[in-house]
Specification:
seven-stranded mixed beta sheet; globular; alpha+beta; 23 strands; six-stranded mixed beta sheet
Length: 500
C-alpha cells in the first residue's frame, strides 16, 4: 500500500477548534481524503476565544481568506497588543505589544543597549505598536524594506461568527457536516483505537483518524481513551470565569485590556458590534456573586445579556495524540486567556498534526515527537502566565500567595538569567519571542542587575543617538497611521447588525 492510510477523518465537535481543523484539513490534505465533522446544535460551545495573537494571520492566509472579508464576517477589530493594568498595584500599567522594540545592533538585542544607558524613558517608547495602540491608531504599515515599521497585529472577533465563517469555507471545500448527538464510542478490539462514534438514530460514523474537539468533556481522548489530566492549579489557581457582552466602545481601542483585581483579573475585548468582557478569579478568594458584581462594575458599557459562568481547571492532557485520536482546543487542555493563546494552541496543534500526518501506518516515533513538541509549547506558555502572577507587588492575600508560591524549574531558570544580565532564554519553536518575554518581565517589575557586556562597545554619544533614533522611528510610524475606527470604516466595517 502506498500513500496515507488515514483517508477517513472524523472531527468530533464543532466550534472554533472543530471548524479550524476542518477548514485546514480540507485545504491541505489530498482530495481522496474524506473529512466529516460531527456536531449537535443542542450542545453549546464555550466561545471565549475572542482575542488572538499575530500567528492567526498566517492561518487565515494559508486558507486563502481575505483579511477584510474575515473581519467583516466576524465583527472583528485589530489588535496591537495587550494592556496590563494593575498587575503591580493599582495605577500600574504596561503593554505586551506585538512586533519589535528598537532593533538589534550586531549580536546584541536592543534592550541591552537600553539597559546600559540607564533605562531612559519607557521601554515602550521604542515600540511602534505600543505607540499606535496608546494613540488609538492602526494601519497595515510595513514601512520600507530597508526600514521596516516594526509593527505586527492580530485580531479581536466574535468566536461564534468565526466558527460559522470557517464552516462555510470548509463545507465549500468538501467537508461533510453531520448533525447529531453522540451516544457512544466504539473501539477496535485488537488495537484499542477508536473505530467509530455512534449517534442518535442508530447511526454509526467510522474513520481512520479521529480529532477530538469536544471541549472540556474530552469525549475521545479523556473519557474513552483514559488519557490522564495534568493539573496545574497549584501554579495557576484561578478556576472560575464569568463572561458578559456590553455595548460597543467608542472609539474602538486597538488592544485587549487585562485588569488585575484582588483575586484575579478582568478582560475587555473590543469588537465592532459589542465589547467582550470577563472576569477570571480564584473561587477560594472570591464568591461567584462577588465576582459577578465586580465584573459588571468594571465594564465600560451597558450589559447586552446575562453574565455566563464558566468553571475550569488549568492544565493539559498528558498526551494530545493517543492511538488514532488527536485532541485540539479544550479537549487537550485549558489555560486562562491571559495572553490570548487559546485559538493559537488550536492552530499550532493543526499545523503539527499536518507536519506529522500519518503515512502507511501510525508511527509511534511520529506520535511521540508530536506529543513532545506539544508539551514543550504548553509548558512555555504556562510559565509566562505564571510570571504574571509571581512578579507582582499587590497587597491582597491572593497575590501574596502567588509571590510566595514555588516556581517550575523552567521559569526559575528564565528569571535567574534575566535578573543577572538581562538574558532571555527561548528554546525550539516555543510561541513567545524574546521581545514578548522582555515586555512582561520589565512590565511586571523584574529588573536585571546587568546587561550584555558587548553593549559596552558603543560610545556613549552614539548610544544616545541610537536610542533616540529608535524612539523617533516608533513615534513616526504611529503618527502616520489613521485612527483605528477610521481604518475599519474604510476597509472592513461589518454591516450594521442588531445582534448583541
Amino acid at each position: 500500500m502506498t500513500g496515507s492510510s488515514t483517508r477517513s477523518v472524523v472531527i468530533v465537535g464543532g466550534g472554533t477548534a472543530g471548524w479550524m481543523a476542518a477548514a485546514a484539513l480540507a485545504r491541505f490534505l489530498p482530495p481522496d481524503h474524506r473529512i466529516r465533522l460531527v456536531e449537535s446544535d443542542a450542545i453549546g460551545t464555550i466561545g471565549v476565544g475572542e482575542a488572538t495573537i499575530p500567528a492567526l494571520r498566517i492561518f487565515n492566509h494559508m486558507l486563502g481568506i481575505d483579511e477584510d472579508a474575515f473581519l467583516r464576517a466576524t465583527q472583528g477589530t485589530f489588535k496591537l497588543g495587550i494592556e496590563f493594568a494593575g498587575w503591580s498595584g493599582d495605577g500600574s500599567r504596561y503593554t505586551h505589544a506585538f512586533g519589535t522594540i528598537g532593533r538589534a545592533l550586531g549580536l546584541v538585542p536592543f534592550h541591552h543597549y537600553w539597559l546600559r544607558a540607564g533605562r531612559p524613558g519607557s521601554l515602550w517608547d521604542h515600540s511602534a505598536a505600543a505607540q499606535a495602540a496608546a494613540a488609538g491608531r492602526f494601519a497595515r504599515d510595513q514601512g520600507r524594506p530597508d526600514l521596516p515599521s516594526g509593527i505586527a497585529w492580530a485580531f479581536h472577533f466574535d468566536a461564534a461568527l468565526y466558527a460559522a465563517f470557517l464552516r462555510r469555507h470548509a463545507e465549500a471545500a468538501g467537508v461533510e457536516r453531520i448533525e447529531g448527538r453522540i451516544t457512544g464510542v466504539e473501539r477496535d478490539g485488537e488495537t484499542g483505537h477508536i473505530a467509530a462514534v455512534h449517534l442518535e438514530g442508530d447511526r454509526r460514523v467510522a474513520g481512520d483518524l479521529f480529532i477530538d474537539c469536544s471541549g472540556f468533556r474530552s469525549l475521545l481522548l479523556g473519557e474513552t481513551l483514559g488519557t490522564a489530566f495534568e493539573d496545574w492549579s497549584h501554579h495557576l489557581p484561578c478556576d472560575r470565569a464569568i463572561a458578559v457582552p456590553t455595548a460597543r466602545l467608542d472609539p474602538l481601542p486597538p488592544y485587549t485590556r487585562a485588569t488585575a483585581h484582588d483575586a484575579g483579573w478582568q478582560w475587555r475585548i473590543p469588537l465592532q458590534h459589542r465589547t467582550g468582557n470577563g472576569i477570571v478569579y480564584a473561587s477560594a478568594h472570591l464568591s461567584d456573586d462577588e465576582a459577578t458584581a465586580r465584573l459588571l462594575a468594571g465594564c465600560d458599557g451597558a450589559p447586552l445579556a446575562d453574565p455566563r459562568p464558566l468553571r475550569f481547571t488549568t492544565g493539559r492532557r498528558r498526551a494530545a495524540w493517543v492511538g488514532n485520536c488527536v485532541a485540539l482546543g479544550l479537549a487537550a487542555g485549558f489555560m486562562e486567556p491571559l495572553e490570548s493563546t487559546s485559538i493559537h494552541l488550536v492552530q499550532s496543534g493543526i499545523a503539527r498534526l499536518l507536519e506529522y500526518w500519518p503515512g502507511k501506518t501510525l508511527a509511534g516515533a511520529d506520535i511521540a515527537a508530536f506529543n513532545r513538541r506539544t508539551e514543550a509549547e504548553w509548558l512555555a506558555i504556562r510559565d509566562l502566565l505564571i510570571l504574571h502572577y509571581h512578579a507582582n507587588t499587590r497587597p491582597e492575600p491572593f497575590w501574596q500567595a502567588r509571590r510566595d508560591a514555588s516556581l517550575p524549574d523552567s521559569l526559575a531558570e528564565r528569571l535567574a538569567l534575566f535578573r543577572a544580565n538581562g538574558r532571555i532564554l527561548r528554546e525550539g519553536d516555543e510561541l513567545f519571542t524574546e521581545v514578548g518575554w522582555l515586555q512582561v518581565l520589565i512590565g511586571q517589575g523584574v529588573q536585571p542587575l546587568g546587561h550584555h557586556a558587548l553593549a559596552d562597545a558603543i560610545p556613549p554619544a552614539d548610544l544616545a543617538d541610537f536610542l533616540a533614533l529608535a524612539r523617533t522611528h516608533a513615534a513616526a510610524v504611529a503618527a502616520r497611521m489613521p485612527a483605528h475606527d477610521a481604518f475599519i470604516a474604510a476597509h472592513c466595517a461589518a454591516p450594521v447588525s442588531k445582534a448583541a
